[in-house]
Amino acid sequence: MVLKKKLSFVIPFDVAACQDSMLAGGKAARLAAMVGAAFPVPQGVVVTTDALRYFCKFNRIKLSSAAFSNSDQALEALQQGKWPSELSEELSEAIDSLGTVSLAVRSSTTAEDGFDFSMAGQFDTYLNVKPDQVREKILLCWAGLFGRAPSAYRCKSSDKSTWSMGVIIQVQINARYAGVLFTVDPLRKSADHFVVEWVRGLGDKLVSGHMELDRLYISRNHPVIDSDLPDNLAAGIYEACRLARSAEQLFNHPIDMEWGIDKEGFHLLQARPITGFTSDQTVAWTNVNLTENFPAPLVPLAWSVGDGFYTAYIHGILRHFGWNDGDFARAAVVISNLMGIQGGRIYYNLNNWYEIMGFFPFSSWLIRFLNNYIGQEIPFNYTPKKARHFTRSWWRALSRKIMFWPRLFKLLLTAERRMDVFEPRFYANRRSWRTPPSDRLTADRLFSRLESMLIFVDRHWTAPGMADFLVMVFPGVLNALIVRWFETDAKKEVVRLFKGLDLASTKSSDLIWQTAQAVGNNNILRILLEQGDYEKLEESLSEELQSLLDEFMERYGGRCYNDCMIVAPTFYERHDLFWDLVKKYVNNSAADPRERYRVNRRDRLQYTQSILKRLAPVRRLIFRHFLKLSWQAVGLRERGRLLQSLLLGEIRLTALALGSQLAAKGAIDAAEDIFFLQLDEITKLLNGKFQFPELIGQMITSRKEAYKSCEQNELPEFFFLDRGEYMRFEGHVKGPALQKNNRVLTGIGVAGGNAKGIARVILDPAQSLRMNPGDILITRAADPGWTPLFFMAGGLILERGGILSHGAIVAREFGIPAVVGIDRVTTLIADGQNVELDGTAGSVTLLDD
User: Fold this and answer.
1) Is the pTM of this model over 0.70?
2) Can you tell me the distance from the alpha carbon of 353 to that of 369, in angstroms, rounded to the nearest whole number?
3) Is 679 a member of any domain?
4) Nearest Cα residue to 110 out of 44, 192, 202, 46
5) How does strand 834-838 pair with strand 339-342?
């Protein structure tokens, strides 16, 4: 005899079976999942899809589109039916168990709250329902399956046979405030801020349109709630933000979450996916760790150079792991589109970066490490799709996975040696790029020189690329070990473990400091320095000082502020930028930067020993190994980053010389106009292949206007767009308004310590003369060109950045407290305002107006 499975008619939220969406419906299943994860969900039960089928079978009702053309017909048939005794008894017991006279009855269909469409607001919810009215409301919910909107959805569904409905019966809270929180802005498609809307009273007013909504935009990573809000509302919204991030992790998807606040506290009422973000046609864009190198829109030349650079960069990494020309050809659509440009700014195409990770073993872990490296919290799990179809033979796919480990091991053994070989090769090539001087070359030879620089990147930039790969992997592993073994905030541990590393990027400050000490001890030179007579000052330099100047210009003169942008002048072009820094260093009573390094190194090693003692011997050995690998990787990356700065300086100088040649021929109006042409356009122009050359001037003028417009627009860090879609602006677009009434701003503490001082908001480091030693430097992001300014600063506050960003690393080297990740801090804090920052807690306090 075959035993029939017992039907489940009514089940509580806390029963595991309630998480089955085919039994309870999508809405109820998600509520049950949140109950299982200890979210504050009001008590409730679900009348299951089994109950609906049993009711219809008992009353011989065929609940189908063929039988009913609208909900009224379905309701009439259902109301004529009788409640089976078994179902009615279970329902009565469930209602009694809720122990309240006021209930909420809500539909929960099997097709609801899915990833492709949520059907939000298309089914019925009944509030203030008395226990004896529940059966009537259940019938109304069931009939709602045949409403106009659900019928239209059903026509689009690929599987119409699975459509059914559970009904939620839930304790109704007497809400003082009710609202909804979107973890992705549904209008801007940005995940930078949570969008919170609320009303006073019950949440039905949110969708009725009968009451004006209040709205807040709250930073995803550092929620700050407007201090003008009532305490219970402010606390509830803060709790909603905290739980929203947890709900995203639970469901692996952006969500919108309904909530309410009553006298008992905060309650979650519903969480559904925000649809449209898992489609193959949706692209996730982020520039979180790009802004330190690209803090503004790119000119066309910088974009074409940067795009080609990243393609060559990933080629070098993949070659190390055994890729050949055929592999590159098959994966070209991914590799050649790792970067994109939105609103004039450069972004990662995250989908394609994740696809690259998918070509390796343990791709899910590599994706996690990549997210940690770029400092981006991703509210969904991306599954690489193209890697499964990439390798044509199974044995090649297997051999690639097997060989991954020896190749990675080889990389570990040879990474430093590779950089040791690469550096002199780079400097040898740089000497060839400078000989003969650019002003002696024709336009075609200048372009050949420019091309040789890009060819050098494509053929030889493997060592810096591998250093970046190691920084992605090993600090990511270290981060995971800290979380697992120490049960503490990994970010706070990393702050003290990554200081005093003696990085190449800080050495320029040593030379400036030595120059400042020598000039400061010479009254004549000091007077010339204070007067700003730098030409006469250089004529009066002693042999020792001339040697220091020559060494700085040789090692760092090709760098500039915001070097990746190409448009900023180098120290080699403008010696005054160097002497401006020397003048500030002369007036800085801070210790020798080399002494700071020694102190920070001693502190790091002592702290390292203290935390290693907290581990068992085997774990201690593993942790120490990955810590040393991480230190090595960061040091190698900074060496590579310095060489990248110098390369871009050479590209700038060569491009300007070529621009001068083109301007002399009348092809463009001025040398700097070359920055508004892309590389392929310059090639065509030089080789007689540029169609309509008479329009070049007009085209450059239009691009300059567009560039200025882009400078005025504020773009999100992280957002979603359909493939081929661009972020659009209507004139001058600003981001969501932020709360300005709070005296404490919160970000990420990346360098420990406390500091009080005068805020100096500096957007252009070349205009840094307002900054005095001990001031708190505030800017959007900082690339290596900013490093000399950090030595003077008493503290650092950045809008963008993370634990492993350049600003954070250098702040730790110089021993100054630093906080990053405070959205639009350059507008929230006024220049000259007194502030106090806590680099350990990640907070900034405004001390006065």
Assistant:
1) yes
2) 12
3) yes
4) 46
5) unpaired
